[in-house]
């Protein structure tokens, strides 16, 4: 240990540090300045950025002793004593904050820029923020925020906000409202799971198998057990309850026991709890495990062959998913043109910037509570309880803020392990994944192979669509069956096709499991069908937009599963609106290749694609959410539901709905999420469902409360209840005003609780194949993308994207804007940068350095067009938006590449190496 | 399970050499640590007893003129290099290369010496320095020697400094006169790690008649260790500038270098293909630099937001 003296946020600090300590360790662990976040610990993501003598540095990989005598500024130090720094304020009002995990790093990096350049242009902002990643894709808003802050700091004038006010705005719904948690995220006060500690807390770590397919022959933990500082070492024998977990099928071992089978490299073999993370890591390294290797199943197509080795006893087929409509013979007979093609998409990774963390502790009443950023708190509770062999109410899940989820925080990560270690030690235990473990363990986006065969008449009318999909679900089911079902039912696109046949094989392999990921299978099948549609347009010699317009689903037509759409089909309007903007920006021939002045090898062109995506679980699953709304003594409203805020802006929407219904100011509504003791089950935060389902629960609970309040006032004042109005934060009986605190007091006095709860059940759906409606609502989108291809190097740049999205009703315009920008950027990554590489079951992309997500320099100009075709059952007409925005982006880009250089992309991500050789006519 | 036991911060070269000599082979020089720390933590590099941080040695952080040459201390960060007016004038290709390394956070701590000493065949800073005809100043217990930069490299990731008790003090290269210029370009893989698939640096001296009087060309990764492409350089000399990228020269260059397929990064075919592309593109850039134009700050930015 050595004495380190430095200045932190203007104060002189002396601490004893070890030789291996990094500046981030000193800041977070010793000084408890937890505004500095750790996203990767490998100098890749920029979340840990702090300023040293005014310049940004990565505190995760800066040896603490390098800071001796230097002046370090963290986000806490940037924040003025009162209020916010202009950059913080700008980030808040511009909607540049979603999950907020990257925000401190973004703001500090931008602050260093503004200290040098008072009026930065976009190029300078991009240069400065190049390696400060935001997985929520807030880049356009971040750029706007930095410019606005710079202007305000330069001129001393008030900060300019954005103004996506909506035409259909009412009291609060449809207006631009900042996220309630944005200021806390901008100042570093916001706490994510790893930001909590408890006295006596131990650090838990997990030994991973490291082999894709094997029998665990021997496991010797004795040396680890006797290591000083180790409090517990657990193996499969120590799991008292169910041995497996899983959201749908319980097939995923909590720990693999001796004699049992390892099915993927990330399988857990042993758990350690120790007084420090370093000791826990050391203990893992001295556990001896022996494996007997088994042949590896690494490809879903090979997995289906009868001679393939088996991943599970039951065989490798997780699910065969058929869709049948009409009569295929008839469809092919009517066709004048038939086209067939096959597409491949890779496994991809959520790369949420906050790695998984579960912090469990024993409570005084003998229960276990777990702090975790989870997308499905009640499922965490039930699975943990089952594996511990206790009743569900013995476990309490307390949802913390979530630094991004995108579907990757639906399955169990460390929750059960942390609880087991608490049970063994009686002490609080934190199980924090580092980036490496996070990459190995949580389920990914399914890799797919998709064959599409289309039949059409000369005028473009589709007559038949046949698709065959293989999905690599990896070693465990997770949500694989659901994901691949969605991929399949959406695989002939949002088109009127009379004759449809789709077959999907969701396969088990020894790859890391695949599960939910924004787009939920539709991302993959949309790429396939929209590429095929573009090929068809060319074959028929019709305009790509025209071909889609002619076949687009509209009210009164039926989907591939035979579901007749009765309302809320805004696809044609999305197509028309994008088309109009496209011809304005791209001229009359946007799909014709154009040269670029000054870059003789470059070609530009536009591409077009459409998509649809269900809202809600569908396929007959019960889709419900509960919510409670309560008026407190101060007249403020508390909304409670166990739904997750993963950055998408759910809190804002729920706040708006309660404010709208109760006529109170937006700021007087508080939202409490995800505490299984205190909030009713909101169901999973998946399938773009929460605005619809939890939103409706809050809407109805608010109405029940309003009616109860009106009834009380009516009795008290001897007037009919409908004579009572709620507006401007008060109840009105004619001109008489009663503020909400008085209303609450009166209700108490009358013996009525000023509280209402409501369990909302979404319209029933039917199972696939039963002939009924499999979903209660669909969102629609059309996008056009302009790319520039360097025909010599194969480099591709996306210049602009026009995105029209039918969201039913835009409740929260700033939130919609964020979802569109973030969705487009994620779709761009899916097209151009992202590939989670697994070779023979072994993960190559096991560090963030080997998995590229888009940064601000990739960000195109994005124009968002909001289309509102309300759905009757949605809150104010709203339907899902979280996924649809990212789905058509990839094929819009790859279609544009084709138009620019004549090479059809059939395999993602676009390989610039292959592309350049194709263009050059060389064998690749 | 520690990766190093002691972290030392000497303030003079002699002190640093003493520390290195104390446990030969078991102590390592650390500069910015942006390569070394990850190599240690991810076990690509065996644990060591001590890390000797050389960034507190004033001499190693210097940038300036020295007897008519330009000196850059090994511990000068990329950020300082990119902003230094002397280097903007005298070392356009190096400024360009360093501006492309990492983001500002990495450039604020990562050093040119670390880039060179890491020994990667496609390190951006190394390739630019080769084209500048740089020499390296190496300090050892026995004294200092000034050697051609190429001579430091002995194998993939292997330098004469490794495992030894030597220290890189800095680099020296000639000042640029009016008839000289240089440029740097690279190709990255959008999916891959932050190492160039191919990079190229070219330095030219023109005579009054527009003929290439002298050329220095470096391409990375052109083999197990960084080096210059001397065959192509020789063919360029005596030619008018516009034939510097002719088929003949490209052919000589392609025969001189050994471009390989690296799994998940680039195929050899692609590398040979873009070698020609980069050669064609770098000649006009280097010529523009002769005429005095300053290099652009960041290519990746392009005219990023020129639209809309
Ligand atoms: C996110 C990221 C992006 C990057 N992008 C690029 C890129 O685009 N291009 C590129 O070329 N590199 C890149 N790098 C790699 C790295 O940052 C650079 O090579 C950097 O210049 C290394 O310098 P350093 O001071 O950090 O070296 P260190 O990590 O401190 O040292 C590297 C090696 O050099 C030795 N060494 C350092 N200084 C001396 C000395 N004075 N004498 C003797 N030996 C010494 C060390 O012992 C070690 O072996 C990137 C790294 C990261 C993390
Ligand atoms: S760069 Fe430090 S945590 Fe990612
Ligand atoms: S807001 Fe940037 S990562 Fe979520």
Descriptive key words:
heterodimer, A: alpha+beta, Aldehyde Oxidoreductase, domain 3, Aldehyde Oxidoreductase, domain 4, 7-stranded mixed β-sheet, 5-stranded mixed β-sheet, 24 helices, 24% strand, B: 308 residues, alpha+beta, Uridine Diphospho-n-acetylenolpyruvylglucosamine Reductase, domain 2, Uridine Diphospho-n-acetylenolpyruvylglucosamine Reductase, domain 3, Enolase-like, domain 1, 3-stranded parallel β-sheet, 13 strands, disordered C terminus, binds FE2/S2 (inorganic) cluster
What do you see in this structure?
The complex is a heterodimer of chains A (924) and B (308). With 924 residues, chain A is an alpha+beta fold. Chain A has 24 helices and 36 strands. Chain A folds into 4 domains: 2-78, Ubiquitin-like (UB roll), CATH 3.10.20; 196-296 and 351-441, Aldehyde Oxidoreductase, domain 3; 447-618 and 769-919, Aldehyde oxidase/xanthine dehydrogenase, molybdopterin binding domain (Aldehyde Oxidoreductase, domain 4, 2-Layer Sandwich), CATH 3.30.365; 624-761, Aldehyde oxidase/xanthine dehydrogenase, molybdopterin binding domain (Aldehyde Oxidoreductase, domain 4, 2-Layer Sandwich), CATH 3.30.365.10. Chain A is 29% helix and 24% strand. In chain A, the strands form 9 sheets. In chain A, strands 8-12-6-19-16-17-18 form a 7-stranded mixed β-sheet, sandwiched between helices. A 5-stranded mixed β-sheet of chain A has the order 2-1-5-3-4, sandwiched between helices. In chain A, a hairpin with a 2-residue loop joins strand 29 and strand 30 (736-739). The model of chain A has no long low-confidence stretch (mean pLDDT 96). Chain B has 308 residues and is an alpha+beta fold. Chain B has 3 domains: 4-53, Uridine Diphospho-n-acetylenolpyruvylglucosamine Reductase, domain 2 (2-Layer Sandwich), CATH 3.30.43; 58-174, Uridine Diphospho-n-acetylenolpyruvylglucosamine Reductase, domain 3 (2-Layer Sandwich); 181-300, CO dehydrogenase flavoprotein, C-terminal domain (Enolase-like, domain 1). Helix content of chain B is 32%, strand content 24%. A 5-stranded antiparallel β-sheet of chain B has the order 4-5-10-6-7. The longest helix of chain B has 23 residues, at 268-290. The interface between A and B is large, with 66 and 52 residues. One FE2/S2 (inorganic) cluster binds next to loops of chain A.
């Amino acid at each position: 240990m050595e004495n380190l003296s430095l200045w932190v946020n203007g104060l002189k600090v002396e601490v004893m540090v070890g030789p291996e300590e990094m500046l981030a360790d000193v800041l977070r662990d010793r000084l408890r300045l937890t505004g500095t976040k750790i996203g990767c610990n490998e100098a890749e993501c920029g979340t840990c950025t702090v300023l040293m003598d005014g310049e940004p540095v990565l505190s995760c990989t800066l040896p603490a002793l390098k800071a001796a005598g230097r002046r370090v500024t963290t986000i806490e130090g940037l924040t003025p004593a009162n209020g916010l720094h202009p950059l913080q304020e700008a980030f808040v009002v511009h909607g540049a904050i979603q999950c907020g995990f990257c925000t401190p790093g973004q703001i500090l990096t931008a602050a260093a820029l503004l200290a040098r350049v008072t009026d930065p242009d976009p190029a300078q902002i991009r240069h400065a923020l190049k390696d400060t990643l935001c997985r929520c894709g807030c880049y356009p808003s971040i750029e706007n925020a930095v410019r606005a802050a710079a202007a305000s700091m330069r001129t001393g004038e008030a900060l300019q906000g954005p103004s996506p006010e909506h035409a259909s705005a009412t009291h609060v719904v449809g207006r631009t409202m900042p996220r309630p948690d944005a200021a806390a995220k901008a100042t570093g006060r916001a706490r994510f799971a790893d930001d909590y500690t408890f006295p006596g807390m131990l650090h838990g770590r997990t030994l991973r198998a490291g082999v894709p397919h094997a029998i665990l022959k021997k496991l010797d933990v004795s040396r680890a057990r006797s290591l000083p500082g180790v409090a517990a070492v657990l193996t499969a024998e120590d799991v008292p309850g169910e041995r497996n977990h899983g959201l749908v099928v319980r097939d995923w071992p909590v720990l693999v026991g001796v004699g049992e089978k390892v099915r993927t490299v990330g399988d857990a073999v042993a758990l350690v709890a120790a007084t420090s993370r370093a000791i826990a890591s050391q203990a893992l390294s001295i556990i001896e495990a022996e494996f007997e290797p088994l042949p590896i199943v690494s490809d879903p197509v090979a997995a289906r062959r009868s001679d393939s080795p088996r991943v599970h006893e039951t065989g490798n087929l997780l699910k065969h998913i058929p869709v049948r409509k009409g009569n295929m013979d008839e469809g092919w007979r009517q066709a004048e043109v038939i086209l067939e093609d096959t597409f491949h998409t890779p496994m991809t990774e959520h790369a949420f910037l906050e790695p998984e963390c579960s912090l469990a502790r024993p409570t005084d009443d003998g229960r276990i509570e777990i702090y975790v950023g989870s997308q499905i708190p009640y499922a965490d509770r039930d699975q943990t309880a089952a594996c511990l062999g206790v009743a569900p109410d013995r476990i309490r899940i307390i949802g913390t803020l979530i630094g991004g989820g995108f579907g990757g925080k639906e399955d169990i990560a460390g929750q059960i392990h942390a609880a087991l270690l608490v049970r063994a030690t009686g002490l609080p235990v934190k199980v924090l994944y580092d980036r490496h473990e996070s990459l190995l363990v949580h389920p990914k986006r399914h890799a797919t192979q998709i064959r599409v065969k289309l039949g059409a008449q000369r005028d473009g009318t589709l007559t038949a669509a046949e698709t065959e999909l293989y999905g690599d679900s990896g070693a465990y089911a997770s949500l694989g069956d659901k994901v691949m079902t969605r991929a399949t039912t959406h695989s002939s696109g949002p088109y009127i096709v009379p004759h449809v046949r789709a077959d999907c094989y969701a396969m088990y392999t020894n790859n890391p499991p695949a599960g939910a990921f924004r787009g939920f299978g539709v991302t993959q099948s949309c790429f396939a069908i929209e590429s095929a549609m573009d090929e068809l347009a060319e074959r028929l010699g019709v305009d790509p937009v025209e071909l889609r317009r002619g076949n687009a689903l509209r009210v009164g037509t039926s989907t591939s599963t035979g579901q007749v759409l009765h309302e809320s089909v805004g696809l044609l309007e999305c197509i028309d609106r994008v088309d109009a903007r496209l011809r304005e920006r791209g001229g009359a021939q946007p799909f014709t290749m154009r040269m670029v002045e000054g870059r003789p090898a470059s070609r530009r062109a536009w591409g077009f694609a459409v998509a649809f995506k269900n809202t809600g679980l569908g396929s007959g699953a019960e889709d419900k959410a509960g919510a409670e709304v309560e008026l407190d003594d101060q007249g403020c409203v508390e909304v409670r539901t166990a739904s997750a805020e993963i950055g998408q802006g759910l809190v804002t929407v729920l706040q708006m709905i309660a404010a709208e219904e109760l006529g109170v100011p937006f700021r007087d509504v508080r939202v409490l999420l995800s505490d299984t003791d205190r909030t009713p089950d909101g169901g999973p935060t998946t399938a773009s469902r929460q605005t619809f389902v939890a939103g409706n629960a809050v809407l109805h609970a608010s109405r029940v409360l309003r009616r109860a309040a009106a009834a009380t006032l009516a009795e008290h004042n001897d007037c009919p209840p409908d004579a009572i109005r709620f507006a401007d934060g008060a109840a009105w009986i004619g001109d008489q005003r009663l503020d909400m605190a008085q209303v609450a007091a009166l209700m108490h006095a009358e013996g009525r609780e000023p509280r209402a709860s409501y369990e909302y059940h979404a319209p029933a759906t039917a199972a696939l194949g039963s002939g009924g409606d499999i979903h209660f609502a669909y969102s629609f989108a059309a996008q056009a993308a302009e790319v520039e291809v360097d025909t010599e190097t194969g480099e591709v740049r996306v210049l602009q994207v026009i995105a029209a999205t039918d969201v039913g009703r835009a409740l929260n315009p700033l939130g919609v804007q964020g979802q569109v920008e973030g969705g487009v950027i994620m779709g761009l990554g899916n097209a151009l940068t992202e590939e989670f590489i697994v070779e023979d079951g072994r993960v190559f992309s096991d560090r963030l350095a080997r998995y590229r997500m888009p940064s601000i320099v990739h960000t195109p100009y994005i124009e968002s067009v909001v289309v509102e075709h309300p759905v009757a059952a949605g809150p104010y007409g709203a339907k899902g938006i979280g996924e649809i925005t990212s789905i058509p982006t990839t094929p819009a880009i790859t279609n544009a590449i084709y138009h620019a250089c004549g090479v059809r992309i059939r395999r993602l991500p676009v390989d610039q190496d292959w592309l350049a050789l194709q263009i050059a006519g060389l064998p690749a | 399970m520690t990766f190093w036991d002691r972290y030392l911060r000497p303030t003079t070269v002699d002190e640093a050499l003493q520390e290195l000599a104390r446990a030969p082979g078991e102590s390592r020089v650390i500069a910015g640590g942006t390569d070394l720390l990850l190599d240690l933590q991810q076990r690509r590099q065996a644990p060591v007893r001590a890390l000797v941080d050389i960034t507190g040695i004033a001499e190693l952080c210097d940038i300036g003129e020295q007897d008519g040459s330009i000196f850059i201390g090994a511990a000068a960060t990329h950020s300082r290099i990119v902003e230094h007016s002397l280097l903007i004038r005298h070392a356009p290709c190096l400024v360009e290369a360093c501006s492309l390394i990492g983001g500002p956070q990495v450039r604020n701590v990562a050093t040119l010496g670390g880039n060179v000493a890491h020994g990667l065949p496609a390190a951006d800073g190394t390739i630019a320095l080769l084209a500048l005809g740089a020499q390296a100043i190496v300090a050892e217990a026995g004294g200092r020697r000034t050697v051609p930069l190429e001579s430091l490299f002995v194998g993939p990731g292997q330098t004469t400094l490794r495992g030894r008790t030597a220290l890189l003090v800095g680099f020296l290269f000639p000042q640029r006169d009016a008839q000289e210029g240089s440029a740097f370009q690279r190709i990255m893989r959008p999916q891959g790690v932050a190492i160039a698939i191919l990079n190229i640096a070219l330095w030219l001296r023109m005579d009054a008649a527009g003929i290439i009087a002298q050329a220095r060309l470096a391409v990375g990764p052109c083999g197990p260790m960084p080096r210059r492409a001397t065959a192509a350089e020789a063919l360029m000399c005596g030619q008018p500038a516009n034939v510097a990228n002719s088929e003949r020269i490209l052919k000589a260059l392609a025969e001189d270098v050994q471009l390989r397929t690296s799994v998940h990064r680039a195929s050899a075919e692609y590398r040979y293909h873009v070698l020609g592309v980069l050669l064609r593109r770098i000649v006009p850039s280097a010529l523009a630099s002769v005429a005095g134009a300053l290099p652009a700050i960041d290519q990746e930015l392009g005219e990023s937001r020129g639209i809309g």
